[in-house]
Design goal:
Radius of gyration: 21 Å
Helix content: under 10%
Shape: globular
Structural class: mainly beta
Strand content: over 45%
Largest sheet: 16 strands, antiparallel, barrel
Distance between the termini: 8 Å
């Protein structure tokens, strides 16, 4: 793989750079990779395919003693379920550039939000994770046209982001502190004017109304144990909501077993409700992972716009390179 990365890096430098600039670039600072993942989902008696391919690349170039330029891209390819043929959908997960300095890192593009570091406390499972923070653009895992500033000083970490897209502008802040060697705590706030998803079919949601969320989280790690929790409260389209996300896992050898709980409830908008517990087993052998997950829906109302109120079983395998 090192030879492949070297060859790709040299090719990229030759294409996008002038010869004199290419000679000054250390190609060891570029890396390329990705994953091929096959996933089958059984929801009640309905089968669906959730397979995907991800391709990514990232690199850095030291401009001087004080500034290092950085960049990253990642694209995801999936099959379009709405098409009868093998039509694919492309999704840009990351596409940003920026600079690292002694005073922090500043980047712009499609990338993590400020609070993503916090929501990643519990977004750890192979499949059933990260459902409670995606309604608001500023608290989602990633967003377009985003400026992110991040700085770490010892046990203290601070993030701030601004979402500049005209229809989904907002931003957030996050602070995290390593309280003890095994315990980290964090708090964050995010707000959005406008919505990432088309909510016109959801009764009681005003698409032009601002939304915000306060969140606190903590995680504990010890040997193979990981225990994390995230609590959120805020407003979405004029409707107050609260959410809880919890994750517990034990890793032994090449195995990992975990259980997680996702809860989201918004006043007067049952279409957004989430309430389920999921169990998962995963085995990792080098660059290969195989896993099986089972979600037990705790809501009996099956009229919600999402599939969260139905039991689901997932089996998957992934090769990373």
């Amino acid at each position: 793989m090192t030879k492949i990365n070297k060859a790709l890096s040299l090719t990229l430098a030759a294409i996008v750079s002038m010869p004199t600039l290419a000679e000054s670039i250390n190609t060891d600072d570029f890396s390329f990779g990705g994953r091929v993942e096959a996933r089958a989902v059984l929801t009640d008696s309905d089968f669906s395919d959730a397979s995907r391919v991800r391709l990514n690349g990232q690199g850095k170039h030291q401009i001087n003693e004080d500034i290092t330029a950085i960049g990253k891209f990642e694209f995801e390819i999936t099959q379009d379920e709405k098409e009868s043929g093998t039509t694919t959908k492309n999704n840009t997960r990351y596409l940003y550039v920026g600079a690292e300095t002694a005073y922090g890192t500043l980047t712009y593009g499609t990338q993590d939000n400020a609070v993503t570091y916090l929501t990643d406390f519990t977004d750890m499972a192979e499949f059933f994770s990260g459902y409670t923070n995606e309604n608001i653009t500023a608290s989602g895992d990633r967003s377009e046209d985003t400026v992110l500033y991040s700085v770490t000083n010892g046990d203290f970490k601070f993030n701030a982001s601004a979402n500049l897209k005209a229809t989904e502008n907002g931003g957030g802040v996050m602070v995290a502190y390593q309280l003890l060697p095994n315990i980290e705590v964090s708090a964050g706030y995010a707000a959005t004017e406008g919505f990432e998803k088309n909510t016109s079919s959801i009764v009681g949601i005003d698409e032009t109304e601002s939304s915000d969320v306060y969140m606190v989280g903590a995680r504990y790690t010890k040997d193979g144990f990981l225990l994390a929790g995230l609590v959120q409260a805020g407003s979405y389209g004029g409707s107050d909501f609260n959410a809880v996300d919890a994750y517990a896992a034990y890793a032994f050898g090449k195995n990992n077993v975990n259980v997680l709980y996702n809860y989201y409830s918004a006043d007067d908008t049952n279409e957004l409700d989430i309430n389920f517990v999921a169990f998962e087993y995963a085995r990792y052998i080098g660059d290969v992972a195989a896993y099986a997950s089972y979600k037990v829906a705790l809501n009996s109302d099956t009229s919600a716009g999402y599939k969260y109120n139905a039991d689901e079983f997932v089996v998957g395998a992934r090769y990373s390179f």
